[in-house]
C-alpha cells in the first residue's frame, strides 16, 4: 500500500468524541498536548495467512505480515501506541491444530503486542495446553474475572496492568465470558468465573482512583450485545453499568463495527465500545488526545488489512 493511501485510510476517523463530560467546543486535537494511539484485534482464530484472491467473502484481506506492516507504520507515526487483543487467539486453522498455539504467540510477540485477554477458544487445548504456550508470549495476559488460583495458570495471568506512554497512565484490565456451556469442564478445570460487571466496577475504580490512571481500557471477551437476552453480560451492558472506563475493546461475537459505538456509562458520560470482527481482517485504531489538564477526546476507525 502506498504510504499516502495508508495514512489517508488509517486516519479517516469519526469526529472527535468528548470523554469525561468535556464540551467539544473547548477542545480539538490541534490544541492537544498528548496523543495516545490504541491498536487492537479480536477473534483472530489462528489466521496467520491472508485470505486468497478467490475467497468469496474476504478476498486478499488479513494476514499477520500485512498487519505487522500497518502496525509499524502507525508506530512510526506515533510512538506512543499500545497494541492489544481481546481474545480467541486460538482455533480456526491447521496452524493451531499442528502447533497448538506456539506460532500465534510467537508472531504476536514479533508484532510487540502489549497485552491480551483470554477468550473461550483459548481453552480448546485445555488449560494445560494454554499454559504450555505461555513461554512463547512476550506480552501479558489480563483477566480479572477468571479466578485461576486452583489451576496451573495461578500467578501467570494478571487482573490488570498499567502502562505509561508520554507521561499518560493507561490502565488495562480484562474480563471473559462464562465458560460453562461453551467449554468442557475438563478443559478449564477449576477456573472460577466471577461476575464480569461487578469485577469491572471494581477494576475501573482501582485503576482510576488508586492507580490514578488517565485512561482506562477494558479488554472484553463478553460479546458486543445480546438483543435476545438483555440480561446477559455484554460490552454495551458493561459500559452502562460502570464508570471510569473510557474504552471497551470487545470480542467473541465477531461484530464488525466501522467505528466505535458511543454509549453512556452509569454517570451519563461517554464510553467507547469497539470490535473489529474476526480473523485479522481489520485492525482497530482509537486515538486519544489530552490537553494540559488531562481532559481528553478521542476518535476511532476500523482499518481493513
From TrEMBL:
Pfam families assigned to the protein according to its UniProt record, in alphabetical order: Metallophos
Calcineurin-like phosphoesterase domain boundaries: 37-255
Keyword list, A-Z: Hydrolase, Nucleotide-binding
PROSITE patterns in the record: 5_NUCLEOTIDASE_1, TAT
CDD domains: MPP_UshA_N_like
Gene3D superfamilies: 3.60.21.10
SUPFAM superfamilies found in the cross-reference section: Metallo-dependent phosphatases
Entry's Gene Ontology molecular function annotations: hydrolase activity, acting on ester bonds; metal ion binding; nucleotide binding
Record has Hydrolase as a keyword: yes
InterPro entries: 5'-Nucleotdase_CS, 5_nucleotidase/apyrase, Calcineurin-like_PHP, Metallo-depent_PP-like, TAT_signal, TAT_signal_bac_arc
UniProt GO BP: nucleotide catabolic process
UniProt keyword annotation of Mitochondrion present: no
Protein family (similarity comment): Belongs to the 5'-nucleotidase family.
Name of the protein described by the UniProt record: 5'-nucleotidase
Originating organism: Xanthomarina gelatinilytica
